[in-house]
Structure formats: C-alpha cells, structure tokens
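Section 5: illustrative case.
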C-alpha cells in the first residue's frame, strides 16, 4: 500500500516497456506503474516513488523495445554532436585569439520569449512559423549553426518549424533533435499553416542522419511520475544530455581531451551518482515536502530564496506549477540574488511586466515579506561558495515574520561555511548535501544544479499532491492552454469517465465556455481558439469530469467543486456514486 513503507518490484519498474502497456500512448504520456497510488502516499513514500521513477532514466536495455540513455546508438550520437560543437568552438576560439577577446557562440530560444522562464506561456509552443522566424532572426548572418531543438514528446510545433527550416538550409544549419519518445511515436497531427507534421519532420531527419547531416537523440527514460509532466524526468534528462554534449566538446577544445565512448559513459555515471546522493536524504526531503504541502493546504505560499544557478532552478520550478497543477502564481514563487543580472537572460530585466516578474531578494522583502506568517514556507537555496553572510542576513529578515524557514545547501567535503551555524539556528531544518571535492567526471556545479532540480521537483510536486491536485498519478487540474494539453485533458476525461472521445471533448468545451449547450460558433472553432479561451479559466477539467460523471449542469458542477475544493476528493465522490 502507498501509505506504508513503499517498495517496488523489478516487474513494476519495467512494466511500461512492454508493447501492450497503454499501447495507444507515447512513452512521455503513459502513466507510470510505480506511482499509481501516489495521490494516497505519505510524504516519505512520495519521495521514494519519485526516486524510483528518476532511477529509470539510467536503466540499461532490458527489452528490445526502446533505446535507453546508455544505449550504444545514443552514446555514439552524443559523441558525434559533441564533435560538431568542438569544431565550432575551435573555429570561434581561434578567431577570438586573433581578436584577443572571445565572444559567446551560444544562444537560446524559448517559445514565448523570456517571460516563459518565469510564467506559463504554453500557447506559443503551437506556432511553427513563430519558431522558424525566431530562429532565423537569432542566426542572421551566421555561416554555421548547430541547432538543438528540444521537444520531450516529439510534439511541439514551435520546434518542428525550426527543424524544418534547418533542413531547408543545410548549407548553414545542422539540426539536432532531443526528445524522449521513439520516432514512430512523434506527433502526427496537422499544424496550422504547415504541410508537414512533427512525425514527417522526424522522418526526414532520420534520413539525413544516415549522412550525419542531422542527428536525433531520443532515448526512452520511462513515463513521468505524474503522467505527462515533462518538467520532471524530461527536464532532468534534457539537462544531462546537453551537458554531456557541451562538456565533452569543451574538454576536447580547451584541454585536448578527445571525445570518447568511455568518457561519455563515465560522465553519465556522475549524474547517476548525483541522483543517489540526493535521494539519500529522503527523510529530509519528505519533511520539506510536508511543510510545503501544509502551506498550500492552508491557502498560503512557498517561497524559494536562492543564490547563483541553483536559484534559477527555483525560478523555473515555481514557474511550472501553474500549468501543471492549476496553481495560482503566488502559490510557489522563486527569487534570486542579483535578479536578472545573475540570470543573464536574453531580454534583460522584465520587472516592468508586473509584480509576477519581480524576482530579486529586494522584491521579496518589499512584496512578500510584509504578509508572511508561520503558515508560509521559505526555502533557502545556496552553496558553500555563495555569500553566506548574505544568506544569513536574509534568513534573519525572514525569521522576523515566520519560523517556517528551511535551508538546502551544497558543500564540498571538508569545507565549512562561515555563519552556517547562525543559519541553522534560524531554520526549522537544514538539509546539507555534501560532495567529494573533485567528482570523477563532470562539473560539480552541474551536479549541484541537477540535485537541486530533483529536490525542488519533489517538494513542489509532493506539496500539490498533498493539496489534492493529483488523482492517482494524473494532473487532474491541468491547464488547457495549448494543443498538447487540450488533447491530454480529453484523454484524461476518457480514462476517468469511460466515455468516448467525442463525448469527453464535448464536456471539455462546455466547461471551457461555461455553457450547457454548444453553439455552432464553438464547435466550428479550432483548438487554437479553444486554448486561447482557456487562459482565463480555472478547473476546466474537474468541471468537465463532474458534468460527465453526474450529468449535472456546469453551474451545478461549479457548486459541487466549491463545496469540495480538494479536486481529488471531489472526483472520488463523483466516482463513488457510480459504483
């Protein structure tokens, strides 16, 4: 049972790999057998389940069904892409030597622009033309571009448009696709204004990969702990893959260390050890999760106050709670010392966009601190190399308003941070993660970042589970703000109600437009119009499900959810009436 000491069997760990397991769904959308009862699990068991799911990232081939992270083909592709980066680096480095200054050769593109780093911007993912135009603008005047497009489910139209553009201009662009589904599971739905689908783009890339004019890195890492929540394993695996490629390329360029098969595997092992080191603190992570969950259940907030790159992980984790759990923006917020200067984002400071984009510690002191109380949770995120005096100072300020302060910090074995004792005294708990001074392979900072990501994913996911935002292991209160989420919502309604797709989509639209009878205008509109309307709606999926299960009107369903605001329990009440 999920409430007792939880363990998993070998069979459960590997059940998703068989072809007859949820065969209609791609790997990234399947439910994970390990977490079927995560909505009923204790905080400690939630962490254990998440650990088991993350362990699947590094599982070796056990069946012929899927290639894995350490599969020969995946490792060899990582090596080839690293060598391409090395070539570009060496060219840029030689030029920089001549100019006596080295210019950056890296740039990033994110659907929705930099505001997507801090808030939900799901709709731009559906625009392939915008993806193409953004890439074209960023790369204007470049003679050689290695483009790495990331779409965990091999589904985002924004990325498909970019990959298609790369293949139309092979004299400049070499496209690389990173994702976590087999190629035959790439999305095959039509995209607005396009004659191609994501799957057809992938098929063209497969053909080009034979001559190394395109590359695909798409290991299967298993279904997400919360079905479809690619911020978790998808995000972690993306970080690992990019760092494997870029670290190998940098080592080859600047230390003359050749890119080797063995070297890539050793670096992978360092990430696997990071997972083990992090989850060795299960009890401590569970305590943080419990505190955060209690805050959310009370209608209060969770604040991440961070320093350096681990603070950026806090900002990103907080930004993902709205589309994943239907959370209010204020429920989980991140703040970073140095603000946008430390983030070094493309567009610079975004503070003028409103309070949601004010992310400095000064902003926390001005906007949040005055209203804090003991029901709020404050989490300090830092490393021993940060300004510990500054950490202690901010902890003192927060302690004036709340005793519910916790610290998570990374330190190298043998290094003692001054004033850490002061911070420990101010905090309800301090989770110290200690690392060997020189890891066998890879950057220590990269390991700290991955560890922080795993921990924060566990805290925010677990807190929302405790709040009742998950049913079994499904995102029952998912926001329906792009085509991927719209289809996921329809599938979820089918799964829970047992009704056919057409009836479930009809209920979804009634909930979305808050009507009991669909008009011709609604039924003739496309998904883009529906998702645009959904931006201003809450609890769309729970409302639709209550209507399906009870036959009630939308207004009656709203009344039902008002009486039982914990979404999971409202759903269970409806389901129990059908038995």
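Designed sequence:
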């Amino acid at each position: 049972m999920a409430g007792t000491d939880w363990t998993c069997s070998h069979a459960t760990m590997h059940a998703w790999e068989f072809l007859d397991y949820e065969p209609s769904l791609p790997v990234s959308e399947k439910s994970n057998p390990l977490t079927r009862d995560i909505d009923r699990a204790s905080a400690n068991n939630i962490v254990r389940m998440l650990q088991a799911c993350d362990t699947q990232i590094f599982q070796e081939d056990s069946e012929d069904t899927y290639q894995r992270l350490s599969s020969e083909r995946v490792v060899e592709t990582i090596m080839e892409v690293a060598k391409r980066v090395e070539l570009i680096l060496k060219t840029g480095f030689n030029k920089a030597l001549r100019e006596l200054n080295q210019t950056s050769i890296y740039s990033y593109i994110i659907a929705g622009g930099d505001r997507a780093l801090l808030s939900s911007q799901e709709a731009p993912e559906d625009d392939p033309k915008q993806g193409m135009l953004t890439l074209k603008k960023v790369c204007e005047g470049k003679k050689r571009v290695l483009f790495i497009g990331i779409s965990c489910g091999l589904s985002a139209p924004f990325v498909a448009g970019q990959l298609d553009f790369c293949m139309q201009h092979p004299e400049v662009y070499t496209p690389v696709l990173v994702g976590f589904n087999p190629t035959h599971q790439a999305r095959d739905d039509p995209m607005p204004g396009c004659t191609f689908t994501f799957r057809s783009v992938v098929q063209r890339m497969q053909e080009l990969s034979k001559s190394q004019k395109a590359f695909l890195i798409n290991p299967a890492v298993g279904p997400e702990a919360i079905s479809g929540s690619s911020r978790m394993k998808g995000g972690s695996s993306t970080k690992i893959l990019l760092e494997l490629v870029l670290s190998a390329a940098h080592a080859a360029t600047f230390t003359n260390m050749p890119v080797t098969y063995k070297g890539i595997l050793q670096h992978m092992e360092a990430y696997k050890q990071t997972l083990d080191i992090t989850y060795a603190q299960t009890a401590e992570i569970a305590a943080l999760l419990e505190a955060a969950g209690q805050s959310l259940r009370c209608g209060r907030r969770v604040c991440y106050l961070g320093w350096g790159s681990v603070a950026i992980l806090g900002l990103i984790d907080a930004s993902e709670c709205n589309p994943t759990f239907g959370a209010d923006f204020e429920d989980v917020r991140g703040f970073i010392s140095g603000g946008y200067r430390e983030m070094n984002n493309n567009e610079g400071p975004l503070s003028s966009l409103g309070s949601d984009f004010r992310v400095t510690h000064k902003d926390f002191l001005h906007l949040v601190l005055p209203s804090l109380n003991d029901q709020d949770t404050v989490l300090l995120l830092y490393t021993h190399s940060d300004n510990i005096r500054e950490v202690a100072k901010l902890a003192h300020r927060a302690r004036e308003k709340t005793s519910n302060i916790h610290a998570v910090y990374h330190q190298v074995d043998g290094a003692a941070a001054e004033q850490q004792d002061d911070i420990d005294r101010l905090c309800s708990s301090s989770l110290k993660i200690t690392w060997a001074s020189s890891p066998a392979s890879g950057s220590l900072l990269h390991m700290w970042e991955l560890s922080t990501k795993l921990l924060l994913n566990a805290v925010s996911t677990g807190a929302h589970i405790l709040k009742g935002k998950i049913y079994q292991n499904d995102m029952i209160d998912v926001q329906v703000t792009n085509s991927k989420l719209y289809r996921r919502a329809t599938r979820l309604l089918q799964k829970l109600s047992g009704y056919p797709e057409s009836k479930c989509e009809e209920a979804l639209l009634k909930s979305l437009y808050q009507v009991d009878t669909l008009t011709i205008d609604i039924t003739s509109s496309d998904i883009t119009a529906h998702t645009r309307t959904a931006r201003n709606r809450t609890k769309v999926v729970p409302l639709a499900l209550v209507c399906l299960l009870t036959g009630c009107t939308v207004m009656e369903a709203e009344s039902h959810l008002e009486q039982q605001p914990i979404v999971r329990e409202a759903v269970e009440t409806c389901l129990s009436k059908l038995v």
